[in-house]
Every structure is written in structure tokens, then in C-alpha cells.
């Protein structure tokens, strides 16, 4: 039993250490966010307390779970911020720089502890030396118990507001005998004292104001405590692997439900059909609830970029403010995890190439400080993330010249403005005159486009010289289950993402432009080009005389996909293709139909590119 008990104890210890590391990562994120907000609001006492509490928790929890170096370092930083709380140190750039570096060093210590490697103690010693330079040697003794010297803006929160008489007695404004005589009456104490001439009315008003403030502080504290208690009761920590496993199970349930519904529809048994309909409703609710559990607000990802903008703009000698909106917008956790790197590329490009230096901006009549806006919002079944800057913008003529120089287009190719701007996503394309440590090698925008397309999303860019640029990323809400339109081409079934489908119309086989030989159709006065799914995937056989034209939206243009028949909407559980088929152009995955047959999910953007490439 001794050996088994030891193993159990060791496993429990490892489990607690892992829990601390997870909690520490959240604390470090909160610490960085509070420090960056404190830079714009240095007098905000709540932010000062947030920083102090984060460091205090890191110190206490670190010592509890054996991270002594973390606890010792956090203690020194906590001591400095305790002096900030007491008004002995003012919040300034040097203090914030040192504390942000301290936050990074704590992260470094935790990572070294996780990997079992020795930490870089010299960096920590340098940070503590810097904090010691700006820290007074010793705080003066407090004026009274519970009150910090020099901190009038952070009042102590009393357990219970004092009564009016107590306040007046403490201040020496009232004699105890006069108080006893006043209390014998039936009127309010303040009114009695003023009418008797025992206390001036302004003294009573001042005491009442103090009493009101104390009551408000107490109520605010109680509300906060109730909120934290409610939040703690309403949420639990669940491993991401368990959620992924649950989503997979729900996906299998949706497939089985689809098969049961199809069998029930052909059985002619009313009771069976009714049960199948109930199962469909319940599985739909379970699907929505399960996917909702995986949805997370994107605000946490946005907050990580404040530090990037701050440090990189300072390195380049620029003044840039990051403005974020739509932090409450929710996305699937997998999408959020994979969108971080593309957004980093876009922000670095905006900081390096987009926003000008303060001198350049002033010469152009702009504010010295530039602005980068990072926003997120729901549009239908998609989430749109935009990165907008008010910098120099992109010159289409310069992009075109660079594309001709690299052989991407011919000198006389007629391209629209949007098509020219889209060339910056070509591999290796860059308009930078020199390569820096930040950007200029032409890998950023290509990486962005490939990463977004891997998430079944689209990226668009718009820019005006001298006015700035906007990059819009359109992403599906989830990567697990989508609503699709099931179609038939030959004997093969395909699924098109329903969010991209605009309309379906009939198309006669000879409806194309016979004179030019192009596959185009006039649809209510607008020309729409189209491709046949049979041609894209080399499906043999003769198509029907009347085909179906499905108009889809792809990268800002309307394109038609011609199929033999439209089956209808289909709740699609996405299954990844094997390694042999994973990189085939035009395919995003597969799903299982109700009859057990497989249907391929079409990657519309990739399909159109593969079709356009040979003829371009």
C-alpha cells in the first residue's frame, strides 16, 4: 500500500502543479492587461490593486506548490507595488516597463520549471535592481491602523459605516453630554443638533457626506463579493480534450440521426417518423449546446496584442494606439487558437509599413499618434475580424509595378483595383524597400492567406494611399459542424458551405456565351461566370439538359457552380481527409450521408483557384 499510496500522492502533486501553471498563465495575462491599462490611467486605484493582487496570488500559490523562485521574485515586485498603493511611488513609464519585464520573467521561470531547464537569473536580478532604483528605502509608518500613508484617493472600506454621532465625536465637533441630550428627542440627530445650535450645519453635512461615502463603499464591496462568488459557482474548468471528444460524439450522433431520419421517411411508419423527428430535434439542441460550450469571446486574444503594439511601436520610434471593439464576439476555441498568428502578422505589417513616424504624420497634417483598430463582429453565420490603420495606405501603382517586376502579371494585364491589391498575398511578394527585423521578406501576407483559408475563411484588403488600410478576415463560427447544401454531379455527392450560397437557378446546357466561348450567364442584368463541377473533378457521363446553377460568393466576387441536381440543405459533420487526399485543391473534407455514403465538402475558394490557374 505504501508504494501505491506514494504513486497516488505523486500524481496528485503533479495534478496540483499543472493546475497552478494553468492558473498562473491566466494571472500573467490579467497582470499584463492591467499594466497596459494603467499606462493610460495611472491614477486608477483599481488597476493598481489588480496588479498587486495578481503578484500576491502568484507569490502565495507559487510557494504553496514548490515554485520558490517564482514566489521570491513575485514578492519583490509585490513589495514595490505595495508602495505604489501607498502613494510612495508614482506610476510612470519606467515603472511599467520594469513590471512588464517582471511579468515576462515570471513567465520565463514557469516555463523553465515546466521543461526542467535552468532559468536566466541575470535578467531577473537586473529587473529587481531597476525596481530598487525607483523605490524609496522604507515606507513611513501609517497614520492610523488600516490606512496607507499618502493615499487619500484609496479610502479604506469599513466593515460598517459609522453613525453620525460617532463621526462628530471623533472629529471633536460635538460634546458627549450634548449628544446624550440630543438623542432624547424624537427628531433626526442632525436636525436636533443644528436647531439647538450645538453643531454648525456645514459640520453635519460634512459628516453625513462621509457616512454616505462609507455606505457606498461597503455596498460596492458586497456586490463585488457576491459577483465573484456567483462567477465561481457558475463555471468549472474542463480539459479541452474532453470538449473535443464530446463534439466528436455529437458529430457521430448527428450522422446516425440523419440515417434514422432517412430510413424513417421511407418506412411509411407514422410512429417511426414521429420518433425520428423528435430525435432530430433533440440532437439539434444537443449539437447547438455542445458547440456553444466551445465558443469563447475573442477579447482575450485581442488583449494579448496590446503588448505587441506597445513594444513594437516603441522599437520603431512610433506612437500608436490600439483600439479594440467587439471583444465579446464569440468564436470556436479552435478557430481562436489558430487565428492568433495571422493577426500578429497583420499587426506587425500595420505598425511597420502602415503607420508613419510622428514627424511624418505631422508633416502630412495628421495627429502624431497613429491608430490601429482591431474589431470583431457577427455577420450572418460568420465572424468578421478587421484590422484597420490610419497610416500611409497601399499604392496600387507600386503594387502593380512590383508584380510586373516579379513576373506575377504581364505589363498589359487589365486588373481591377481590388485584384491589384490582392496581389500582396502572393508568395514572397513585398513592397518594402528594405528588409528589417520586423518585416519586408514577403512571407507575412502569404502566411496570413494560407492560414485563413485553412480555417475555411476568406481575407480581403482595401486601402487608399494616405488614408490607411483595412484587412477583413471572414471566418466560420465553428470548424466541427456546418450547414451545407448537398448537390449531385454524376453519381457523386458534394456539399457546399451554405453560408457562401446566394441563390440557385436553372441553367440550360447551351446557356453560355457561344460567341466568345466563355461560360457566363446574364442573371437579372448582371454577368456571372460559372464552372461545372463535372469539369472540375473530371466526372464522366453526360449532364442533364437542365442543370442547376448555384451562385456563391467567393473573395468578393459572385461565381456560379453548375451541378446536375440540388438535393437540399444538410447538417454536415466535417471529417478530415486522409494524408493522401488532404492537400487536393478544391476539397475541404468529407461527411457521411444518411444512407452511409460519403459526400465531399467543396472548398469553393480553392476550387476556383485551381480552375483559374491553368488559363491564367
Query: How many structural domains in the coordinates?
Result: 5
Helix content: 40-55%
Q: Which fold name fills CATH's third level, the topology of the largest domain?
A: Heat Shock Protein 90
Contiguous helical run count: 19
What overall form do the CA principal axes indicate?
A: globular
In short:
This protein is α+β, with helices and mostly antiparallel strands. It has helices at residues 2-40, 45-64, 68-85, 93-115, 121-134, 164-170, 176-183, 189-195, 201-234, 240-267, 270-294, 299-315, 333-354, 358-363, 396-405, 417-421, 444-454, 533-536, 604-615, and strands at 295-297, 320-325, 330-332, 370-379, 382-389, 458-464, 468-476, 481-489, 492-497, 501-508, 520-523, 526-532, 546-554, 557-563, 565-573, 587-592, 598-602.
General description of the model:
The structure is a single chain. This protein is an alpha+beta fold. The chain has five domains: 122 residues, HPT domain (Four Helix Bundle (Hemerythrin (Met), subunit A), Up-down Bundle), CATH 1.20.120; 61 residues, no CATH class; 44 residues; 179 residues, Histidine kinase-like ATPase, C-terminal domain (Heat Shock Protein 90, 2-Layer Sandwich), CATH 3.30.565.10; 135 residues, OB fold (Dihydrolipoamide Acetyltransferase, E2P) (Beta Barrel). It contains 19 helices and 17 strands. The strands form four sheets. It has a five-stranded mixed β-sheet with strand order 2-4-5-7-6, with helices on one face. A five-stranded mixed β-sheet has the order 15-8-9-17-16. Strands 10-13-14-12-11 form a five-stranded mixed β-sheet. The chain is globular, with a radius of gyration of 33 Å.
Amino acid at each position: 500500500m505504501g508504494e501505491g499510496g506514494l504513486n497516488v500522492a505523486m500524481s496528485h502533486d503533479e495534478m496540483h502543479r499543472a493546475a497552478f501553471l494553468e492558473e498562473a498563465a491566466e494571472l500573467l495575462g490579467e497582470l499584463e492587461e492591467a499594466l497596459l491599462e494603467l499606462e493610460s490611467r495611472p491614477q486608477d486605484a483599481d488597476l493598481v490593486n489588480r496588479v498587486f493582487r495578481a503578484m500576491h496570488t502568484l507569490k502565495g500559490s507559487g510557494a504553496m506548490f514548490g515554485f520558490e523562485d517564482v514566489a521570491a521574485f513575485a514578492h519583490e515586485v509585490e513589495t514595490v507595488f505595495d508602495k505604489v498603493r501607498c502613494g510612495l511611488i508614482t506610476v510612470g513609464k519606467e515603472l511599467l516597463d520594469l513590471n512588464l519585464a517582471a511579468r515576462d520573467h515570471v513567465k520565463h521561470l514557469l516555463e523553465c520549471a515546466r521543461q526542467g531547464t535552468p532559468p536566466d537569473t541575470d535578467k531577473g536580478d537586473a529587473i529587481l535592481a531597476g525596481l530598487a532604483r525607483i523605490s524609496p528605502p522604507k515606507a513611513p509608518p501609517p497614520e492610523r491602523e488600516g490606512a496607507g500613508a499618502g493615499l487619500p484617493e484609496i479610502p479604506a472600506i469599513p466593515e460598517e459605516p459609522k453613525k453620525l454621532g460617532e463621526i462628530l465625536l471623533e472629529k471633536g465637533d460635538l460634546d458627549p453630554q450634548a449628544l446624550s441630550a440630543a438623542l432624547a428627542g424624537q427628531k433626526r440627530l442632525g436636525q436636533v443638533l443644528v436647531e439647538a445650535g450645538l453643531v454648525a450645519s456645514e459640520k453635519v453635512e460634512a459628516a453625513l457626506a462621509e457616512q454616505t461615502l462609507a455606505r457606498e463603499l461597503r455596498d460596492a464591496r458586497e456586490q463585488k463579493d457576491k459577483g465573484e462568488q456567483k462567477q465561481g459557482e457558475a463555471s468549472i474548468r474542463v480539459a479541452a480534450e474532453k470538449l473535443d471528444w464530446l463534439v466528436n460524439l455529437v458529430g457521430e450522433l448527428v450522422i446516425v440521426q440523419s440515417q434514422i431520419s432517412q430510413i424513417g421517411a421511407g418506412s411509411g411508419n407514422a410512429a417511426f417518423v414521429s420518433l425520428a423527428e423528435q430525435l432530430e430535434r433533440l440532437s439539434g439542441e444537443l449539437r447547438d449546446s455542445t458547440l456553444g460550450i466551445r465558443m469563447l469571446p475573442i477579447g482575450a486574444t485581442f488583449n494579448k496584442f496590446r503588448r505587441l503594439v506597445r513594444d513594437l511601436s516603441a522599437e520603431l520610434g512610433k506612437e500608436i494606439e490600439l483600439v479594440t471593439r467587439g471583444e465579446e464576439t464569440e468564436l470556436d476555441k479552435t478557430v481562436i487558437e489558430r487565428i492568433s498568428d495571422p493577426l500578429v502578422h497583420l499587426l506587425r505589417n500595420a505598425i511597420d509599413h502602415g503607420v508613419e513616424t510622428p514627424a511624418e504624420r505631422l508633416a502630412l497634417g495628421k495627429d502624431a499618434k497613429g491608430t490601429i483598430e482591431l474589431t470583431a463582429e457577427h455577420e450572418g453565420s460568420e465572424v468578421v475580424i478587421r484590422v484597420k490603420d490610419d497610416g500611409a495606405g497601399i499604392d496600387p501603382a507600386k503594387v502593380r509595378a512590383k508584380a510586373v517586376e516579379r513576373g506575377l502579371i504581364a505589363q498589359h494585364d487589365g486588373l481591377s483595383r481590388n485584384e491589384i491589391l490582392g496581389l500582396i498575398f502572393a508568395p514572397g511578394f513585398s513592397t518594402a524597400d528594405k528588409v528589417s527585423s520586423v518585416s519586408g521578406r514577403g512571407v507575412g501576407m502569404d502566411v496570413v492567406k494560407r492560414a485563413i483559408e485553412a480555417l475555411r475563411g476568406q481575407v480581403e484588403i482595401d486601402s487608399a494611399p494616405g488614408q490607411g488600410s483595412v484587412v477583413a478576415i471572414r471566418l466560420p463560427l465553428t470548424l466541427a459542424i456546418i450547414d451545407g447544401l448537398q448537390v449531385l454531379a454524376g453519381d457523386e455527392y458534394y456539399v457546399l458551405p451554405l453560408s457562401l450560397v446566394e441563390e440557385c437557378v436553372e441553367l440550360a446546357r447551351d446557356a453560355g456565351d457561344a460567341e466568345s466561348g466563355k461560360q457566363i450567364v446574364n442573371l437579372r442584368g448582371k454577368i456571372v461566370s460559372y464552372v461545372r463541377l463535372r469539369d472540375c473533378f473530371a466526372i464522366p457521363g453526360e449532364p442533364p439538359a437542365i442543370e442547376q446553377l448555384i451562385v456563391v460568393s467567393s473573395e468578393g466576387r459572385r461565381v456560379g457552380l453548375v451541378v446536375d441536381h440540388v438535393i437540399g440543405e444538410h447538417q454536415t459533420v466535417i471529417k478530415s481527409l486522409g494524408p493522401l487526399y488532404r492537400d487536393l485543391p478544391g476539397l475541404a473534407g468529407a461527411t457521411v450521408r444518411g444512407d452511409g455514403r460519403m459526400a465531399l465538402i467543396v472548398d469553393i475558394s480553392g476550387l476556383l483557384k485551381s480552375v483559374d490557374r491553368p488559363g491564367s
